[in-house]
Amino acid sequence: MEAQKIRDAIDELKNEALAAVADVGAEADLAGLRHRFLGRKGRLTVILRALGQLSSEERPVVGKEANAVRVTLEEAFARREADLSEGILEERLQTEAVDVTLPGRQPRVGRKHILTQMLEEITTVFLGLGFRVAEGPEVELDYYNFEALNIPQDHPARSLQDTLYIASDGEDVLLRTHTSPVQIRVMEKKEPPLYIIAPGKVYRRDVADPTHSPMFHQVEGLAVDSEISFGDLKGTLQCFVESIFGKERRVRFRPHYFAFTEPSAEVDVSCGHCDARGCRSCGGKGWLEILGAGMVDPNVLEEVGYDSEKYVGFAFGMGVERIAMLKYGLKDLRLFFENDLRFLEQF
Amino acid sequence: MLLSLDWLKEYVDFDIDPEELAERLSLTGTEVDSVERIDEPQYQDAVLELEITPNRPDCMGMIGLAREVAAFSGKKVKKSMRRPQEINVPISQGVNVRVTAPDLCPRYAARVVRNVKVTESPEWMQRRLQLAGVRPINNAVDVTNYVMLETGQPLHAFDQDRLVGDTVWVRRAEPRERITTLDGDDRELDEEMLVIADDQGPVALAGVMGGANSEVSRDTKTVLLESANFLATGVLRTSRRLGLISESSLRFERGVDIGGADWALDRAAQLLQELAGGEVLKGTADVFPNPPKPRQIFLRASRVNKVLGTGLTAEEIGEPLQRLGMSVSLRSEAKATASDPELVVEAPTFRVDLEREIDLVEEVARLYGYDRIEATLPAARRRQGFLTAQQRTEALTKDLLTAAGLWETVSYSFLDPGELDALGYARGSRERRFVEIKNPITSEQSKMRTTLIPGLIRTIKCNVARGMVGLRIFEMGRVFHPRPGQRLPDERLLVAGALTGQNARALGRAEGPLDFYDAKGVVEILVARLGIEDVFFKRTSEMPYHPGRCSQVLVGEDVVGTVGELHPEIQQTLELPHRVALFQLAVADLITRVPASRTFEEPSRYPAVSLDLALVVDENVASAEVEKIIRQKAGDLLEKLVLFDVYTGSPIPEGKKSLAYALTFRASNRTLDWAEVEAQRDQVVAELESELGAGLRV
Question: From the list A132, A256, A257, which residue is nearest B385 (CB)?
């Protein structure tokens, strides 16, 4: 009789527990249930304590049955727990889904000015060709800017460049109109062989408009050696143009005049839109002028004390803004110096 | 220079179309800016706009250009051989020429044409003048312009009946002598200027412009034609001094063919007779005391090939020179020596630019064709390209600032003193000692900049006006200061930055307005990454900064720059919507402090012990002082010190603030035990208490 009562209680507990386990929704609740049914002070333990009242024949039988129920329930709890945790992960994965089209949190990064980028690009090409970088003053003596470059006081070439002068005793201090005076300064200090470029700011007495600027940037190049030629100048500049504009662009050398080089050349690059056939973007010309160059005039070499019989030199000069304008299709010089953020952010 | 091809055909034959001709001209050194075709029922032509370089005055005339075309096409130049019909009255009965300044006028030739009928030129001549950009006036004046365009030799026509006396004087002007030029301006002259004068006074400014008093008009009966050679430098000087530029002065200042004056004069007399009738007196009054000897130039084949990188023979070198009208004598290579080379070239007088061997090398190169010279690279030998440490540090500085979120700007190196006024720079401050520009175009560009701050403010204003109020920018560039006793100023490379406003409203970008600490943070990162140690900040007060938010930046004892917020009053006056935090540093001062070499320190593999220290100190105690004591007393085991909170207000007593630091201790060779760290901490706390009266926050 006692045994039957215990059996019934166990059965009831089993059914109740299984129902509760099936019903439970959270892992924490499941732990509470387990404690309530199977814990040290749980209901099964309480029931099993009554086993002591049973006879020695009945005790092992009921005990075995009770254990089977415990195993069943343990399994049920374990299954349920596994189900629950899987469900929770599933739910987390679902609730944590984001709108991948929302903007990312961007670290703030600035950028160098387009002119600096251009200058660095140009410099890199010439470093690779074995040139070093030289610098000189922006406020310069007439001697370095003109005289030593074979441009004496009454030379017609002077009227081509409207010069800003510095208020001083004479007319001999000015804002350099080109980076060429650096050539002279370097040659005064060093003996050939010499391979340098000189990037920097230059100034002209011009009102700022789309094609003029009172200040702009040039890169000067100078090579003096015992065995270099016009052919080497061509090759060097061809390398440069290919690096900056791409291998598919062609280079053209046209005779020109500069006071401090002879023979002199203007160098054109073929229009990227029409391959030199002439189109609207190049004004029908097919070719875009990018720099001036030539063999250093013997007068210039002699002026710095070089033996112009022994040494030959080539020199070139380019406008950095002009190259940037050609490269990016810019039409107005003033944009470089306004520093409109919307302009800066494009490069 | 405008070149009508219809006109050009009179002097040289060519059968290529205008575009190809333009290309050939460009590739031999006469740059063609544009080709304009004229297609009218009665007239077809093409006009090229040419850019004539200053060394080639001979190309400022049709015949010179025809020589160029002939040289590259192998054709011959055709020159008119017609001569004027002279009457049997010698020129000496018409005019005497006296040159008293032969240094400024090596040649003066004149002819007289009597009984002319001055009227309009025929249509063909008017058209040609107009196509060349010259306004037709009357047949006498038009003839002089026409022949100038043809030959490059400027000519002038006087109404001889209006000249006083029979003598034409070529002399220097008297001091303060005056002339009214053809443009109607009355001009005062000086004794460096050359004039053409009659017995009474100047009738023309030699080589620049004629005088109104001798101008040819419809009533003119006798025309005196002048074809002279004036010294380039003299004409240039007069033209510049008077601010008077003419077609004539532009040619003379580049150099006119001294040997061509007589041919041009004959041509003009013949044309005038053709158009205006009249009697041409016999002969020419030609004052030409020292005709120049032909210029012989030695040309070595070896030199040509060395300079150009070619392998041309003497014949190949001589051939293009002959096509250009030079006489070339060749010697065989075997017999040639340095002093007696393969080629001896005689340069014609019209090529004033040819004097030296190198001038001929250029002629050979341009006619041989630049495109035919092989492109090579200089031999590398032991040459190596690299940047100096200084150049690399400059680039690194820009890299670091951009990595810190700043955009680089470039502004003009000029300054308007008004900008310094607006920013409140003190009178007598270093920024107000300027390098001044003598001939500025505007006051905004009248001084060289002494600081980069105004440029940054300009950039901010420009952007704010366009609706961009959040900016983080920097500029690196030179500033200029006069150096007493030196002709050239001091040029210092500075770097300066500005941070202002808030970022545009956007998700994940919330941020308070930028202030002093944002600018200071940039400076700290910069110097730290450059590897500069010993950097301090010290409160200072100078314009244009907020007196309470301005600091010197020091490395050791030396001030290398400033960081500070723009004074609020100035910010308001400049109508800037937000605080502007600025910094400016001397790049050279930073570069010299970048350690030349640094030694690697191995990171410890042992665990760290961290503890927090919340202190209460007087409000006016600088956090730098607290940090200094912590570092001193915590010893070498202190790996990292971070201030993570500054707090005032309840429950911290009035006049006090709380500073909370996180200290990380670590040893390089063992695991630290807690007691050891606590001992260090107690030392720190004790020292803070005795030195600064600091207490632990409870």
Answer: A132
